[in-house]
Write a structure and sequence with these properties.
By secondary structure, the protein is an alpha/beta fold. The strands form 7 sheets. The chain has a 5-stranded mixed β-sheet. Strands 9-20-10-11-16 form a 5-stranded parallel β-sheet, covered by helices on one side.
């Protein structure tokens, strides 16, 4: 279908406030901050629920790895009776309560296929597809807030022989519990927080897990000196430089959990905080997996060379049989596939080109929330800044008695006005 036919077939909706793409924590936070400033918004979501990554693509035993005070969204803290590290279900209930509290009502089942700035009229066209009866809908607004996040699409590695392997191969987005892997030899590919925790879960269901550790990794205790390692790090950074805090974290880790290199977990040259700042790579906060590695219940392997029908050959030449493979290989941004004609996002990784803390604002009313590589704390910072910036523009346009170009265009094309939030 040509673009002209596509446009003519699309139902067109005028949105007075910003269009927010994505109803995860980032999208909800942006909408709540805007609403608190008196600015309405419209949230578009491709799935049928809010926080779809949490609801549809996470394992059952998941808990927040950081204390709740570092994971709450703006303007509404977690319930006081929640534990320090809320469970998956508790976090989802918090998100649902957040949406109810601020009366946020996303438009579900709307997949954005293109978002493009119209230089002639000075507004954004966001084209979506969905089920009947809506079909193709084009939304029009002066502002677009990209809130699809760092984890929009699964990353599945391409390994030689994957088509020959007769066992199950699943990404962690499809893993719920180790129950169905009882007694099986399972290879977990990826040694981040998810990979380590999936191994722990598999052990709890009497599976026989192994872990592929291809690169170096920092493993830290989840808590030090009676408090969270993350919270302690944030406090120390107020007084000390990053490298000095890193030295302290590594010294304490050596005293508490020993030399991880002895068990196949070599540490990177850069310290955990400096590495996070430079590359965005998060250290593993251990919740019990390391003890199982030390005891031999979880075996550690190097990178994979190839797969055969029943076995895996590793880069060091060793071969081992496995019944299943779980890819804990993370996610990636999908922004470059649908956001058109902008240099704000990198085509390479789908993140804003400007480094933190400057990656929240682009040109022509384009914004990004949740791409800081700093978790929900970064999301809150982005959402607050975006709301303050748009509020100033909103007030300026409301004082201008002349109809905007957008409203003229909407009226001339008989657009339907729509503001959900």
């Amino acid at each position: 279908m040509s673009s002209n036919n596509y446009c003519s077939a699309a139902k067109q909706v005028c949105v007075p406030g910003p269009i927010i793409i994505g109803s995860g924590p980032s999208g909800l936070a942006a909408a709540a901050c805007l609403k608190e400033k008196g600015v309405p918004s419209l949230i578009l979501e491709r799935e049928n629920c809010i926080a779809s990554l949490w609801q549809l693509k996470t394992y059952d035993r998941l808990r927040l790895h950081l204390p709740k005070q570092f994971c709450q969204l703006p303007l509404l803290p977690f319930p006081s009776d929640f534990p320090n590290y809320p469970t998956k279900q508790q976090f989802i209930s918090y998100m649902e309560g957040y949406a109810r509290h601020f009366k946020l009502d996303p438009v579900f089942g709307r997949t954005v296929v293109t978002a493009e700035y119209d230089n002639g009229y000075g507004f954004w066209r966001v084209r979506t597809v969905g089920g009947e009866p809506e079909g193709v809908v084009e939304y029009v607004s002066r502002w677009v807030i990209v809130a699809t996040g760092e984890n929009a699409e699964e990353v599945v590695p391409k390994i030689e022989g994957m088509s020959e392997f007769v066992g199950q191969i699943v990404h962690t987005s499809g893993y719920k519990t180790g129950e169905c892997f009882y007694g099986k030899r399972v290879l977990v590919v990826g040694c981040g927080n998810s990979g380590m925790e999936v191994c722990l879960d598999l052990c709890n269901y009497d599976a026989q897990p192994s872990l592929v550790v291809r690169d170096s990794v920092h493993v830290l205790p989840q808590e030090m000196l009676g408090t969270s390692t993350f919270g302690l790090s944030m406090w120390l950074l107020k007084w000390l430089p990053v490298r000095m805090v890193d030295r302290f974290l590594l010294l304490m880790s050596r005293l508490m959990i020993g030399d991880t290199a002895k068990f196949g977990l070599n540490r990177p040259d850069l310290g955990p905080l400096e590495l996070k700042k430079v590359s965005g790579k998060t250290p593993v906060l251990d919740i019990g997996t390391l003890e199982l590695i030390k005891s031999g219940k979880i075996k550690v392997w190097p990178g994979i060379k190839r797969l055969t029908r029943h076995s895996v050959e590793f880069v060091d030449g060793r071969v081992e049989n496995f019944d299943a493979i779980i890819c804990a290989t993370g996610y990636k941004s999908n922004v470059p596939t649908w956001l058109k004609d902008t240099n704000f996002f990198s085509e390479k990784d789908g993140f804003p080109r400007k480094p933190f803390p400057h990656g929240w604002k682009g040109e022509n009313g384009l914004y990004a929330v949740g791409f800081t590589k700093r978790g929900l704390l970064g999301t809150s910072m982005d959402a607050t800044r975006i709301a303050e910036d748009i509020e100033q523009q909103w007030k300026l346009s409301s004082r201008n008695l002349r109809p905007s170009v957008l409203m003229h265009h909407c009226q001339s094309h008989e657009f339907r006005k729509e503001t959900q939030n």
